[in-house]
Q: What sequence folds into this?
């Protein structure tokens, strides 16, 4: 592993492109390193994982509307094209619009994989645009895996080194260049072409974190899908020989200087050496529960602690001692009154650790639909308990959140439940059960089980077996088989399966 130092360079001090971060990322993507079997298996797990959450969300309004937009961009029978989740494989669509629809479906339930370090990320958001381009461009399963390994490697490296949220920038600014580089790796493009695509992807993907603040709207699900569209367009443009703003990270008027730490910015980005195995995907982790990642361990902890409380009305106060991020982003440190509003949107509720803790304590279960229903959020005893919960930043949990030691890294906290009469119940959990260092780490069996659970009642056993079977042979798939890597539903069980006239398209 090497540390690439990144800083701002004035125009009077030209920076050779080979020393620019965008070039380093492109070189990483185009380095022909063999994919290790363990890594390839995890890529297949994440393809299964993405399909699980996408199909579970297939009829939710944001997903249906994104699909309706994609349906307006079909490809003819004699053209290659990409598939849409739920739609029969015989119908094909423009890759960028398939990436848009499928990316929204994957992100809607907030239940796929995550990586947290200096910034936040959901690396599984790389899969929809790469799969769409693979289907349209005739890539094999081996090429798709190679591209996804590169995309994960790049996004994880950027997330480890460069904090976006400190400057109120949304985390797709690290996703879009990873998607572009991954597509380039998958298609076997030259380093120069990938370099230009990465630069365009960085330039156009910076946006604010207001999408995750206040009353959170469906744009939270659309944002990574938009990133995927931007990445595909960036690669297409670069393949036609067009250049992009350069140097996109280090330039005196570029993103480091005016969107991040300013003229004195200095970052160390950890990148693998040439020929070094790409294993970053193994550092990432999926979600067992449909909620913000910092809630995963707290939900599991709530299940454990609830057995000690027989009367919820006897609870006087609940305090969650946790990291800076959990306290200020999804806790009371955010200052968002919406996080205590029983009429808030689902997107807001899944970013309220107070709501999540209250429901998990009372129910002893978490469901991607039922736990967010308006009648569940508005239940009087839940609202009463919810308002008794506060979060507190604990420096020890913040330190563990930011440590570089993966075995010490923690995303949980300590819960104190104060009962009438003075008794205080205390317990803590560092990582969720499903985490790679948790009590029940997810492996292939758990991913397939999650797929079965989330698609239950939506697809039949034959379709389930067909799709999982393809994923289990992912590196061996021919280009034709990659075009079948999609979960199909009975059209009668879906909304928005035909082109409509509700919008512009």
A:
């Amino acid at each position: 592993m090497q540390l690439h130092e990144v800083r701002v360079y004035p125009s009077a001090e030209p920076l050779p492109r080979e020393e620019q971060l965008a070039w380093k990322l492109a070189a990483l993507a185009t380095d022909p390193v063999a994919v290790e079997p363990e890594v390839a298996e995890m890529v297949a797990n994440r393809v299964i994982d993405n399909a699980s959450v996408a199909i579970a969300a297939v009829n939710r309004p944001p997903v249906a509307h994104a699909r309706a937009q994609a349906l307006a961009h079909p490809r003819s029978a004699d053209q290659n094209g990409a598939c849409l989740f739920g739609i029969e494989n015989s119908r094909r669509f423009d890759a960028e619009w398939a990436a848009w629809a499928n990316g929204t479906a994957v992100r809607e339930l907030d239940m796929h994989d995550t990586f947290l370090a200096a910034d936040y990320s959901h690396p599984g958001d790389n899969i929809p645009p790469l799969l769409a381009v693979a289907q349209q461009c005739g890539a094999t399963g081996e090429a798709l895996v190679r591209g996804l390994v590169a995309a994960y490697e790049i996004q994880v490296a950027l997330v480890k080194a460069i904090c976006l949220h400190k400057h109120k920038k949304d985390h797709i600014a690290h996703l879009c260049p990873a998607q572009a580089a991954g597509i380039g790796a998958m298609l076997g493009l030259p380093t120069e072409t990938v370099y230009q695509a990465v630069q365009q992807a960085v330039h156009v993907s910076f946006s604010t974190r207001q999408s995750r603040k206040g009353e959170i709207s469906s744009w939270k699900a659309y944002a990574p899908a938009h990133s995927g569209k931007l990445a595909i367009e960036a690669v297409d443009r670069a393949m036609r020989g067009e250049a992009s703003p350069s140097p996109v990270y280090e330039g005196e008027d570029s993103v480091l200087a005016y969107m991040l730490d300013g003229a004195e910015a200095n970052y160390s980005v950890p990148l693998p050496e040439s020929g070094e195995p790409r294993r970053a995907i193994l550092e990432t982790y999926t979600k067992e529960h449909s909620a913000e990642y910092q809630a995963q361990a707290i939900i599991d902890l709530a299940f454990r602690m609830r057995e000690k409380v027989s009367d919820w009305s006897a609870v006087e106060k609940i305090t969650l001692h946790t990291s800076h991020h959990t306290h200020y982003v999804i806790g009371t440190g955010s200052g968002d009154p919406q996080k205590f509003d029983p009429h808030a949107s689902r997107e807001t509720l899944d970013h309220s650790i107070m709501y999540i803790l209250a429901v998990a304590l009372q129910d002893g279960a978490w469901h991607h639909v039922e736990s967010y229903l308006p009648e569940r959020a508005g239940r009087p005893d839940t609202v009463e308990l919810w308002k008794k919960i506060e979060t507190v930043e604990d420096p020890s949990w913040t330190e563990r959140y930011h440590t570089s030691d993966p075995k010490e890294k923690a995303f949980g906290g300590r819960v104190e439940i104060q009962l009438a009469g003075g008794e205080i119940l205390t317990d803590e959990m560092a990582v969720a059960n499903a985490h790679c260092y948790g009590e029940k780490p997810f492996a292939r069996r758990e991913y397939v089980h999650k797929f079965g659970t989330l698609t239950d009642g939506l697809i039949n056993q034959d379709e389930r077996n067909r799709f999982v079977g393809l994923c289990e042979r992912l590196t061996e798939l021919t280009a034709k088989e990659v075009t079948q890597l999609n979960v199909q539903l009975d059209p009668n069980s879906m909304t928005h399966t035909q082109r409509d006239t509700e919008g512009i398209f």
Notes: The longest helix spans residues 141-161. The domain at 293-429 is CATH 3.30.1330.120 (60s Ribosomal Protein L30; Chain: A;). The chain has two domains: 2-283, 293-429.
